[in-house]
Design brief:
By secondary structure, this protein is α/β, with parallel strands linked by helices. The protein has 14 helices and 20 strands. Helix 3 packs parallel to helix 7.
Length: about 525
């Protein structure tokens, strides 16, 4: 054997095999190190503001509340889905990169929690290329304001999935710019929004919303064109539990009521009695309750809904009149009136309508009645009324059974949605009762719920009443990555300095080659 190795021909082959084995073993070593490093690693965030780390609040919630709730349903996974397009402008690309970096932090944190890892996955979907995935996501929210994040928990096949949709208005502090036409992105609040959404979808105890019955209200499970099943499904997907309630047969509104929804048709069977109105009054005033009211134009001019006194106490009134939109620019969708959020002298919007206003989205309704501030209501320090939606300046007021020959009452812009809020105490700034009134129930029917931004507005309304518009107070970050900007003159002077080290190494190598050649 050794004699063969002394033969030059065999020795050459042995050397080749030896070198090949060394190269293969070196590659195998590098691959093994990368495999181990990709799955077992430790990270340190050395930036001054720890911009690439989740806050202690988020880590605590993931390790305790989220992990404990997910242990009850180990077969379900938590998904963070970033929806963005492949072709975006520079600002949208910066936002996409910042959001995706934050999602990667959630993925890393989920694997290294002290109490044990949780089943969290991140995914990015391009609706222009991944049509099937985009179609599935479309049922939760219109894919308009991109990039956006969907926080999903549960199994779609079994119908028990819960989803929260976060748009740019949720992820960033956005305001109108000085011109009033563009948007000015202030701070990145993505961690606050995403952590709140995660807690919302994984919690095992669902908030309960009661729908009143007994006055001809539309049933929430009705799948017909004028039914409310789409509205109900949207609430169930967001971890709300729905139930019916008849106030006439109860001593009081149940203690577990997060909100009470009243959807009154154009012809009610009976008005709310004084006892039922008193139960709603106690719920709002004494228990800081939340009521979402949809009023129709009553076809019977002499019949009221029985809630007029309650509205007056909360600084609102809704006369039984019909609002007719006459501006052609506001009759764009199927001939139905299209409305935008109320703009104050300075562009400042309520949390319910802020997203619609900043992203220039509208809502569609059918027959309307006004919902306005009652000028005769008592002026209370704890009482605040916000106008949410309004018609154009070319709209008119008509009698409830208006025909083409009817004479209008009044011309001008009319408010058709408003919210009245109270504080729990003068001394303590706590959230009090909230009464939100829409001048049409058509916005939540199966016929119009998915039209324009109707779904977004109504879901925002329910979330606001349930105090789900914000749950945490995590520090915001700068909206854009920091850039190193060097003037041209300094960069030219810096160029040759940066070349010194490579040049020195090259000269050293040449010198060593020369010395070896001489020797």
């Amino acid at each position: 054997m050794f004699e063969l190795l002394e033969d030059f021909r065999y020795a050459r082959w042995v050397k080749r095999l030896n070198r090949t084995a060394q190269v293969l073993l070196s590659l195998l070593l590098v691959a093994g190190l990368n495999y181990v490093a990709a799955r077992h690693f430790k990270r340190w965030d050395l930036t001054p503001a720890h911009r690439y780390s989740l806050s202690p609040e988020t880590l605590a919630f993931l390790n305790q509340s989220v992990r404990e709730n997910m242990q009850h349903t180990p077969d379900k996974s938590l998904e963070l889905i970033l929806v963005s397009r492949g072709q975006m402008n520079e600002d949208d690309q910066l936002r996409r990169d910042q959001i995706f970096t934050l999602l990667k932090e959630y993925e890393y944190a989920a694997k290294s929690l002290p109490g044990g890892a949780i089943n969290l996955k991140i995914e990015e979907v391009d609706p222009d290329r991944q049509l099937d995935a985009a179609t599935q996501l479309q049922k939760y929210s219109p894919l308009i304001d991109l990039p956006m994040v969907m926080v999903k928990y549960g199994d779609v096949k079994n119908g028990d999935d819960r989803v929260r949709v976060l748009n740019s208005v949720d992820l960033y502090h956005v305001e109108k710019d000085a011109s009033g036409k563009g948007l000015d992105v202030k701070d990145f609040c993505g961690e606050n929004a995403i952590t709140s959404a995660i807690l919302d979808v994984v919690q095992t105890k669902a908030d309960k919303i009661y729908f009143t019955q007994g006055h001809g209200e539309w049933p929430v499970k009705d799948t017909s064109t004028m039914g409310l099943s789409d509205f109900g499904d949207a609430l169930i997907q967001r971890n709300y539990k729905l139930a019916n309630i008849n106030l006439a047969g109860l001593d009081d509104i149940p203690a577990d009521a997060t909100a009470v929804v009243i959807v009154l048709p154009s012809t009610s069977r009976s008005a709310f009695s004084s006892e039922e109105q008193e139960k709603l009054r106690r719920y709002l005033n004494q228990r800081n309750g939340r009521v979402l009211l949809f009023l129709s134009v009553n076809t019977n001019p002499t019949q009221n809904y029985g809630l007029e006194d309650l509205l007056r106490e909360w600084g609102l009134r809704s006369p039984n009149q019909q609002v007719v939109e006459a501006d052609a620019a506001h009759l764009e969708i199927h001939g139905l009136p299209v409305f935008t959020p109320v703009e104050e002298p300075k562009p400042r919007y309520h949390l319910i309508t802020q997203q619609l206003a900043l992203t220039v989205q509208s809502v569609v309704m059918g027959l309307l009645r006004p919902v306005e501030v009652d000028p005769q209501a008592a002026d209370e320090a704890q009482h605040q009324v916000h106008e949410l939606l309004a018609t154009s300046k070319n709209s008119w007021l008509y009698p409830p059974n208006a025909t083409k020959d009817s004479i209008p009452f009044q011309h001008g812009a009319k408010v058709i949605a408003a919210i009245s809020e109270k504080r729990a105490s003068d001394a303590v700034d706590l959230p009090g009762g909230k009464l939100l009134v829409y001048g049409s129930p058509d916005i939540i029917t199966n016929n119009l719920f998915a039209a324009a931004a109707n779904r977004t507005l109504i879901v925002n309304s329910v979330n606001y009443l349930a105090n789900h518009e914000h749950m945490l107070n995590i520090r915001p970050l700068a909206p854009k990555e920091s850039k190193l900007e060097i003037p041209t003159a300094q960069f030219e002077g810096l160029g040759w300095r940066l070349a010194l080290l490579p040049a020195a190494m090259a000269l050293f190598g040449l010198g060593m080659c020369w010395l070896r050649y001489r020797s």
